[in-house]
Amino acid sequence: MLPVLDxxxxxxxxHGFQRSLREAAHRSGFFYLVGHGIANERMRDVLRLARxxxxxxxxxxxxxxxxxxxxFRGYSRVGGELTNGRVDWREQIDIGPERxxxxxxxxxxxxxxxxxxxxxxxxxxxxxxxxxxxxSRLGLGLLRHWAQSLGAPENAFDDAFATAPATLxxxxxxxxTSDHSQxxxxxxxxxxxxxxxxxxxxxxxxxxxxxDTWVDVPPLAxxxxxxxxxxxxxxxxxxxxxxxxxxxxxxxxxxxxxxxxFLSPALDAVVPIIALPPELAEQxxxxxxxxxxxxxxxxxxxxxxxxxxxxxxxAQVHHGIVPAG
Length: 325
Prior knowledge:
By secondary structure, this protein is α+β, with helices and mostly antiparallel strands. Helix content is about 30%, strand content about 20%. A hairpin with a 2-residue loop joins strand 10 and strand 11 (about 215). The termini are far apart.
């Protein structure tokens, strides 16, 4: 089982919590977070609205088709996203910061723009905008603990998030199927950290603990599942290593609802490089060098890589990017 960290303990034993936080991210890159102060009722409301959206007719979902958005926002049908060139068996809404598009934008600046909000169910937009603000505060607080655990000032990451953070949130449903095994393929997250809310009793999330060794990560009542992204790997020279994970598609007659929140800095922010204490630096493994998945220190480059690969139809329609092969 993954480590369980209690954020409430940081009030009485901050050094103990920070040590546990650092060790969990160093060893597995994943952990459960409890004691975060977000009421179970709010978590249930978010999951309820997510399920209500996926129950609306297809024509209502298609009103906000991502194919209408050059900013990769809105609804993707089942099979409308790829990981490692293979179809993911899920449907979802992608939601980012609500900002105006940039005239004449090039490259990753095309990721800035307005969201596409569904007309049903009632209260969807308000609930998820408030959820984004709440979970972002939680994530930024974790980053301050991480900075201190690594021997840096607690505000080491603040500048990257000071103006126009580009956090991404997804509302996801994995339908049951007997024809597909890949709910979402093995990947690392491109941002700083991810806080995942998932329905109780859901199955399918797996984490790669060692090469080609996968362990199941079931939900824990009242907890977020947290993992670090590629930018924390860059910031620590590989002492903290982003971990591959995947979701196995549910079986027939079942499904899975989840709401991942990808905490990310401004598009043009360059992640700060932390000067680790010698005892930590000697344990750094270096940033993974995978020619098929280059990791960039500027968040926008990392995000653009991820989004154009995952949604080649949007990339081609709006940006003229023709998928390889």
